[in-house]
């Protein structure tokens, strides 16, 4: 099979899987939020509301796609696609499992995997900040300025929390990092790093309690106030796919990837991977239902004055320990 | 080789777009395209680490700050007013200088003794030329002095920024009183109806 055909088939399958997981992650979030607030959640379309994503998709596609008069037409139309592109392209290098012979299940397996994920993730902010700016109205502009500041601040601590894992694993490739966790998951030696990553990941995906970017009590809907119809839908997909991505990364870096816990190897590795990712997704929904939104200046102070020094300290301590114990 | 020409054409086109774009935001988008193309070019030259760092540092951090500043300064979407056209006076010296620099570059490249090209494995593998490990080793052994010197220069720049811009931070009391005065002025304007 030629390489391009293999990549094409893998991409199509993966795209289908990711989009389906997005649809049901969205439904799951609404259900879980509903149960946590003692209400049933969506339950009208299909059995237990299982066809709700299809109804939502149909609604978004049929809605009118408005462009404000003050908007910059080209960037306004381009921005949702930037968000979506960066959200999906990460999946080109995320490995989901390994066969018995050690072959990794991923579209591409690059040596600088984790750095490439950081690189693609750092481009994700453009969709939000260009979209908010190009809307030509005040709430989106405020939302996008906030998101830019927030994402830059939290990206630093996030990258530093990765470096501890890289030092322990001695490689930047994602399957190498997972293989290094065959005995101990890195959440144990890198507990501080893991906590920092989980917190910064919430900020990077603009989810509650760090969803200042779209704080509806102050900014209407933040950067996507002016968007409607399918273009809003694209931002929406990008947000959930990003949630999936950060859950995948947390699983790969800190929770052993497809390694089975407690020698429960009769369940295949891919299933473990999916279970771990699902646990993270639930955790993020739980956070949203539980925690109130931070005030903006506290958010920035928390990022710069607590997370960043803590991440640096974690890095230095890890480096010293690894240097002395070899 | 085809990849090189396509990338080179895209690089130059996006660089030109960066300069000629009327709206500053389009310049940023063009520059973003330029950096991304440059990163791909690095990959074809088996400089994997450099490509990734190019994206993380330039596209992911520095350009985002450009967007930030533009979003804060130019609130409207209107282009900047065009200044006086200075091109007629400058094109001859600029052209001569460019040609001279280009000639010097060609002379230098054609005269330099090419070291044997390092054996390259496939890009994206561990421990080949330009990989993360290779880059790191070079950075912390042969290139350690320039690396540390660059770090020192950046440190000086950071301290400079804090000294220049951090005045208000150290003087919280004065800032408070300034804010109170501002507020009083604004309230007075509100009472009087206009400034």
Cα-based radius of gyration of chain B, to the nearest Å: 24 Å
Task: Assign an overall shape of chain B.
Answer: extended
Largest sheet of chain B: none
General shape of chain A: globular
The total number of structural domains of chain A is 1
Tell me how many strands of chain A there are: 2
| Structural class computed from helices and strand pairing of chain A | mainly alpha
For the largest interface, the chains and their residue counts are: A-B, 38 and 29 residues
Mean pLDDT across all residues of chain A, rounded? 83
The name of the CATH topology of the largest domain in chain B is Four Helix Bundle (Hemerythrin (Met), subunit A)
Mean pLDDT of chain B: 80
How would you spell out the order of helices and strands of chain B? HHHHHHHH
- Alpha carbon gap, first and last residue of chain B: 65 Å
| Subunit arrangement of the protein | heterodimer
CATH class value of the largest domain in chain B: Mainly Alpha
Q: What proportion of the residues of chain B form beta strands (DSSP E)?
A: under 5%
Please provide a written account of the structure:
The complex is a heterodimer of chains A (326) and B (195). Chain A is an all-alpha fold. Chain A has one domain. Chain A has helices at 3-36, 52-62, 73-89, 113-134, 138-169, 174-179, 191-204, 216-219, 229-254, 269-290, 296-325; strands at 97-98, 104-105. In chain A, strands 1-2 form a two-stranded antiparallel sheet. In chain A, a hairpin with a 5-residue loop joins β1 (97-98) and β2 (104-105). Chain A is globular. The termini of chain B are far apart. Chain B has two domains: 1-75 and 124-142, NADH-ubiquinone/plastoquinone oxidoreductase chain 6, subunit NuoJ (Four Helix Bundle (Hemerythrin (Met), subunit A), Up-down Bundle); 145-195, no CATH class. Chain B has helices at residues 2-20, 24-44, 48-73, 87-111, 132-140, 144-165, 167-170, 172-192. By secondary structure, chain B is an all-alpha fold.
């Amino acid at each position: 099979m030629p390489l391009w055909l293999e990549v094409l088939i893998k991409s199509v399958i993966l795209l289908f899987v990711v989009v389906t997981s997005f649809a049901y992650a969205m439904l799951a979030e609404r259900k879980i939020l509903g149960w946590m607030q003692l209400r049933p959640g969506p339950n009208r379309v299909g059995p237990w509301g299982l066809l709700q994503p299809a109804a939502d998709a149909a609604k978004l596609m049929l809605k009118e796609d408005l462009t404000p008069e003050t908007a910059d037409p080209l960037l306004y139309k381009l921005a949702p696609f930037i968000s979506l592109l960066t959200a999906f392209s990460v999946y080109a290098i995320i490995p989901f499992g390994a066969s018995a012979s050690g072959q990794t299940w991923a579209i591409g397996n690059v040596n600088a995997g984790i750095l490439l994920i950081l690189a693609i993730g750092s481009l994700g902010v453009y969709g939000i900040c260009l979209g908010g700016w190009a809307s030509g109205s005040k709430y989106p502009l405020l939302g996008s300025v906030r998101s830019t500041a927030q994402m830059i601040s939290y990206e630093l601590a996030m990258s530093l929390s990765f470096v501890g894992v890289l030092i322990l694993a001695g490689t930047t490739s994602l399957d190498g990092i997972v293989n290094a966790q065959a005995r101990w998951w890195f959440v144990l030696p890198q507990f501080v790093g893991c906590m920092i990553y989980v917190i910064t990941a919430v900020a990077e995906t603009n989810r509650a309690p760090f969803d200042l970017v779209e704080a509806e009590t102050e900014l209407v809907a933040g950067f996507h106030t002016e968007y409607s119809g399918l273009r809003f839908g694209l931002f929406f997909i990008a947000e959930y796919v990003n949630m999936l991505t950060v859950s995948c990364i947390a699983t790969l870096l800190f929770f052993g990837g497809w390694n089975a816990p407690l020698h429960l190897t009769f369940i295949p590795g891919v299933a473990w991977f999916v279970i771990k990712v699902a646990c993270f997704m639930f955790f993020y929904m739980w956070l949203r239902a539980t925690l109130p939104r931070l005030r903006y200046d506290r958010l920035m102070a928390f990022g710069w004055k607590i997370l960043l020094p803590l991440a640096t300290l974690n890095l230095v301590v890890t480096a010293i320990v690894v240097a002395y114990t070899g | 080789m085809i990849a090189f020409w396509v990338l080179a054409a895209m690089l130059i086109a996006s660089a030109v777009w960066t300069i000629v774009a009327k709206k500053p935001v389009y310049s940023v988008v063009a520059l973003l395209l330029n950096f991304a193309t440059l990163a791909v070019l690095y990959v074809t030259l088996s400089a994997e680490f450099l490509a990734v760092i190019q994206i993380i540092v330039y596209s992911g951090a520095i350009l985002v700050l450009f967007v930030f500043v533009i979003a804060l300064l130019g609130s409207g979407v209107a282009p900047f007013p065009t200044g006086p056209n200075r091109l007629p006076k400058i094109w001859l010296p600029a052209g001569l200088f460019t040609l001279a620099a280009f000639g010097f570059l060609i002379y230098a490249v054609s005269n330099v003794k090419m070291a044997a090209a390092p054996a390259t494995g496939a890009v994206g593998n561990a421990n080949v030329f330009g990989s993360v490990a290779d880059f790191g080793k070079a950075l912390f052994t042969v290139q350690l002095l320039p690396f540390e010197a660059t770090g020192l220069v950046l440190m000086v720049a950071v301290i400079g920024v804090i000294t220049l811009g951090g005045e208000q931070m150290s003087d919280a009391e004065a800032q408070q009183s300034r804010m109170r005065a501002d507020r009083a002025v604004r309230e007075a304007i509100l009472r009087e109806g206009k400034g």
